[in-house]
Specification:
Elements lengths: L42 E4 L7 E5 H5 L23 H4 L19 H6 L1 H4 L23 E3 L6 E3 L2 H19 L15 E2 L3
The protein binds heme C (4 copies).
The site of one heme C has 27 residues, from helix 5.
Length: 196
């Protein structure tokens, strides 16, 4: 479940989604497409090169069941790794439609990955959602999606893609739970830390 979360984003004000522009020209980091990860990372430091500060993302708590929306409900891999499913499946949740690799027939799960990490086909978000002004590694140009209810095309830079993928769920968690650590989309420092 929870694949639909990506789609609920239209409900959030665009300002919250961080229209602030990043200008740093440093090289990309992120997962990197050059080498294949052979294990599922536990904690990932995102945005190491960003001026607003790096983000410590607890991958295992997010996908291992600790951080589901409800107790006992795990967040599916594809609710974040949306291209790691057949194109025909993705297309059931517009604006999604792209698969990577394009002809894949499998859907990413922990089991699929543990069986054969290479075949599981996990690409780092930043390999497609590049930083503003940079060309993505795996796509000819930056992905765009149509803003729902309008014809405006939104460029899915790393900033836009990560904020959408992360904020929608946190927003919902915060509206449903009285006590929660889920970051507020508008409190930038709940994710971005400048020191160290
Ligand atoms: C809440 C969102 C989320 C969920 C759920 C999630 N991931 Fe991830 N995963 C990420 C992010 C973000 C990265 C870092 C990507 C980057 O560096 O651009 C990542 C990175 C990875 C990587 C390393 C990729 C690389 O080459 O750098 C693997 C492997 C991976 N995830 C597997 C999984 C598997 C298997 C599942 C399901 C059991 C899963 N993930 C669930 C967000 C998620
Ligand atoms: C849920 C955590 C979270 C919150 C809250 C958040 N961000 Fe982000 N932000 C991220 C992640 C993750 C990235 C992508 C980092 C990467 O590409 O590795 C990012 C990327 C960015 C970037 C692009 C950085 C670069 O140089 O590539 C900017 C600018 C940014 N955020 C600004 C903000 C602002 C301003 C706010 C508050 C309105 C905010 N963020 C709130 C997680 C968050
Ligand atoms: C192989 C390239 C590729 C990778 C890898 C990728 N994306 Fe995307 N992403 C796209 C494309 C292309 C779109 C536009 C919709 C489509 O064609 O499916 C998109 C759209 C999105 C959207 C907008 C969806 C909506 O409902 O508006 C979000 C959010 C997003 N990606 C987040 C992520 C995150 C987070 C990761 C990593 C966990 C990731 N993407 C990995 C190519 C990619
Ligand atoms: C489907 C829901 C969901 C998605 C998607 C999601 N989160 Fe979370 N996140 C949670 C929940 C639930 C918590 C913890 C709430 C609690 O402790 O009450 C949390 C907590 C956090 C925290 C604070 C606690 C900690 O682990 O450090 C950070 C930082 C965070 N998330 C970052 C991210 C980033 C970055 C992304 C996008 C790559 C993301 N999250 C995507 C549900 C989600």
């Amino acid at each position: 479940m929870k694949r639909r979360l990506l789609l609920l984003v239209a409900a959030l004000p665009m300002a919250v989604l961080g229209l602030v522009l990043a200008e740093s020209q440093e090289a990309q980091i992120g997962g990197g497409s050059g080498s294949v990860q052979t294990r599922i990372p536990d904690v990932i430091i995102l945005g190491r090169d960003s001026k607003v500060g790096k983000v410590t993302f607890n991958h295992v708590k997010h996908n291992g069941g600790d951080y589901g929306m409800e107790a006992g409900i795990t967040i599916d891999c594809i609710s974040c790794h949306h291209v790691a499913q057949p194109a025909s499946e993705a297309a059931k949740y517009p604006p999604l439609r792209t698969a990577w690799p394009a002809d894949r027939t499998t859907t990413l799960t922990a089991d699929l990955f543990l069986k054969d990490p290479k075949q599981a086909g996990v690409a780092a978000c930043r390999d497609c959602h590049a930083r503003a002004g940079e060309v993505p590694k795996l796509m000819p140009e930056m992905p765009v999606v149509k803003q729902s209810g309008s014809t405006m095309l939104v460029k899915m830079t790393n900033q836009m893609a990560f904020h959408r993928a992360c904020d929608v769920c946190h927003f919902e968690v915060r509206s449903k739970r009285q006590f929660t650590n889920a970051p507020s989309p508008t409190t930038c420092t709940s994710c971005h830390k400048r020191e160290g």
